[in-house]
Amino acid sequence: MGVAVEAVVRVGPVVVTPSGRLTGGSRDTVVVATEVCWPARRVPCPSAPLLAGAFDRAGIAVRMGVITVDADGADHGDGAIAAALRGWIGDAPEPGRPFAVFGHLAGRGPATAERVRAVAARWRQAIRPRTVLLASPRSFCAGVERAIAVVERVLESRAHPVYVRKQIVHNTHVVRDLERRGAVFVEELDEVPDGATVVFSAHGVSPAVRAEARRRRLHAIDATCPLVTKVHHEARRFAERGDTIVLIGHAGHEETEGTLGHAPTDTVLVQTAADVARVAVADPARVSYLTQTTLAVDEAAEAVAALRARFPALKGPHSEDICYATTNRQDALRAVADESDLVLVVGSANSSNSLRLVELSARCGVPAYLIEDARHIDLDWLAGAATVGLTAGASAPPALVDEVISALGGLGPVTVEVREVTAETVHFALPREVRRP
């Protein structure tokens, strides 16, 4: 198997497994090193996720792993790799210096080789010193932490499997982690065996779902965010006094569906201020409004203003339905966006509060990108970006933000400046069923 070495990108073609054998998958595989180990030093390659993601988007299969070189230059199984790496032992890069290692397995056609060279060129073009403006607050909120803790406690205390209706929170990494620990995620209760344990997600459920759980004798544990539960109480209160309820929210979102279920015959859904003109009510003097907890603050205000213009007697909740965490993360983004060349928002595509952050940055005139993790950062975004705003939706784990900063550090020195707009001290108690003595 041949080896291609490229001076600028420090290329070697390898993953050496613990068993000592070279691996790389199919003939079209590129292998990206996460770390290169010599006998007396270990050199991390923090930009590996950026490279791996770029190869993946270029249609080239990619794997990541560690390269190890023995004292004599051997590589545990492939002499060609040792030959490529032997000359580096004396001049491994200084800490913080851009450093990447990847291997393009021999035998490629010219088209694949050209794509590999193009990715390497994009990596080089993204190299530069950077400032990261880190928005605070960011990442997990109290409701998300509570919901995840509920599933973790149930997994600790009950026999498997433990079922969760819908994603416990809207984040792919959180769901995969809980799946590895034994949680089984389902879309509806008909996928749960009679008598089994099921957790309701942080987004809440309708009374019809709770009734079905009782009928099926399911052991249901409610991880609904208390701030969503507040909206449910308001919906029932407004309906009981005879109001038409206008719910401002996104059609099809799990939180919206759950809230609609608490007063289904009395609630009208609107998504934007423009929808207000089409609202029909029995009595214009008896109209109330509610909002999804994860909306963009300014867009929700526009919808409320349009409702008030049509229905001057409009009533609302005693306190804002948009939750503190959503508001805080949007305020924190505003604090960094104006000074940024681009904004990266860590979060999943089905996360409403994460999507609202991307949209808010665009309204501020700054390009923003939603990324699951560092591997989803496009190198082309970084080529001219000296200052990067960075935040994360309320359902995104903080570790993913750290990973992004580390990956950017693999392209040159990074200065991190935290912009904190407020300190969050909110904490929600766990449901009685999972509290420890």
Write the layout of secondary structure elements.
Elements: E1 29-38, E2 41-44, H1 48-57, E3 61-68, H2 79-86, E4 102-104, H3 110-125, E5 130-136, H4 142-157, E6 162-165, H5 172-180, E7 183-186, E8 197-200, H6 207-215, E9 219-222, H7 226-240, E10 244-248, H8 254-260, E11 267-270, E12 287-291, H9 297-310, H10 324-337, E13 342-346, H11 352-363, E14 368-371, H12 379-382, E15 387-392, H13 398-409, E16 414-420
Helix pairs in contact: 1-3, 7-8, 10-11
What report would you give on this structure?
This protein has 437 residues and is α/β, with parallel strands linked by helices. Helices cover 33% and strands 19% of the residues. The protein is built from 13 helices and 16 strands. The chain has a five-stranded parallel sheet with strand order 14-13-15-5-16, sandwiched between helices. Strands 1, 2, 3 and 4 form a four-stranded mixed sheet that branches. A four-stranded parallel sheet has the order 7-6-8-9, sandwiched between helices. β6, α5 and β7 form a beta-alpha-beta unit.
